[in-house]
Amino acid sequence: MSKRNPKILKIFLYMLLLNSLFLIIYFVFHSSSFSPEQSHPHIRFHVSVNNQSAIQKPWPILPSYLPWTPPQRNLPTGSCEGYFGNGFTKRVDFLKPMREGSWFRCFYSETLQSSICEGRNLRMVPDQIVMSKGGEKLEEVMGRKEEEELPEFRQGAFEVAEEVSSRLGFKRHRRFGGGEGGGGGSVVSRRLVNDEMLNEYIQEGGIDRHTMRDLVASIRAVDTKDFVCEEWVEEPTLLVTRFEYANLFHTVTDWYSAYVSSRVTGLPNRPHVVFVDGHCTTQLEETWTALFSGIRYAKNFTKPVCFRHAILSPLGYETALFKGLTGEIDCNGESAHNLWQNPDDKRTARISEFGEMIRAAFGFPVNRHRSLEKPPSSSSSSVHNVLFVRREDYLAHPRHGGKVQSRLINEEEVFDSLHHWVATGSTGLTKCGINLVNGLLAHMSMKDQVRAIQDASVIIGAHGAGLTHIVSATPNTTIFEIVSVEFQRPHFELIAKWKGLEYHAMHLANSRAEPTAVIEKLKEIMKSLGC
Hints:
Blueprint: H1 4-30, E1 44-45, H2 80-84, E2 90-95, E3 103-109, E4 114-124, E5 129-130, H3 146-149, E6 152-153, E7 158-162, E8 171-175, E9 185-191, H4 195-201, H5 211-218, E10 219-223, E11 228-229, E12 232-233, E13 237-240, H6 248-264, E14 272-275, H7 285-291, E15 295-297, E16 305-312, H8 320-323, E17 332-333, H9 336-341, E18 347-348, H10 350-361, E19 382-389, H11 411-423, E20 432-439, H12 446-454, E21 458-462, E22 478-483, H13 491-499, E23 502-507, H14 515-528
Parallel strand pairs: 1-11, 7-10, 12-16, 13-14, 13-16, 14-15, 17-18, 19-20, 19-21, 21-22, 22-23
Antiparallel strand pairs: 2-3, 3-4, 4-7, 4-16, 5-6, 8-9, 9-10
Helix pairs in contact: 11-14
């Protein structure tokens, strides 16, 4: 044990140094942008401040963490860091930082062809965003159309402040959003980002309704004298619009985009999140709440609100997790320790880092490997958890009938056969035991789902969104996907590759698996684990 103490101390000091550098970089990076509000003689600040978000969660120490800021110089387009890390190397100032007023800028990635944008003193007018309220219980909004839940931004839905004399192109227009402090009446303003700049830095990229682009297009720059803020959110806040919000895979892309945006902009603590959409609540909000400092819906604000520091998170469709489904991303998972010593443009630890972030957010330890249980008998062999991820019927969203599409028509038969094989001691494995876990994830809390994933040595399942949880799997976990002929999609093979996990696929001629073939494949995997 004494020999390990110096190594543990070195690791601790290394992580402490990284976090210290991270904080220094943040404050240096933002020092010119966050001047004291008292220095501005024109912007009208009211004493009413929104303190609901006063508590900010710190970032946990993650074994796979590597520095995000400043971004690597001369980062090759198409590198793994460009896809999964900080490839947002081109900074574009649409409203430059000044001693007074607002600023707004974007960081563009040549690899992903998308931007992370952020601004200081950004005013949101909820009345200028057309969408449902959001945050309701599912049962209350059954039958509601998706179009009603996605935001439509009218001009002036968001505003920033600048001196009129500093810019050309200002025009007088009618501002909406009335009420005391609402800023109704006629104001002088200009559009902050024109179509040419949108086409260059916030490209539609085949997305039918690019809500982040529409949000940026709605921003008006108003004279500082017309910038009225009655309610302030002082803490850094992510503005997020979700698509396919009840689907785990697509929600993981949103979580990842939000995490990357937080790291790229150098936030010293975990930000708050405002959903700029009108979706109802889902079970997945449990993880949103765990990952970040708090969540709120845009329409929860009943009058205009100003964000001291707002970050616009790219759509989940713009992440490498989604883009990799249709375009080859030649990256393999590697440990952060090895990459720190030997950088490699074709390897990444970012997905492992993100998985550790999810586990840490729920309070699970991330600084040790999975420990194997000992059976209650006198045997000295270890027991491996084998998690069978099941597909269940459940009500997902207002347009869902409660039935999921079967990917493995005899799933129950396969599970029962595996259970009998294990329970009767017929495995033929002499060096370890198996604890078969019935992964009915849809009826488990998100925390319990993550716990089941991190405790598993082997994860089995037919193609389905529940397998996306493998982003949180620990190193040395083996993935065994049963692939029916109708669902030969690369989602989970790719995630396993990007995490560096061993992956096995059983390709079926139809949608039915032969239970004995599944048992033989699992037996082969268990033997490879030393059983």
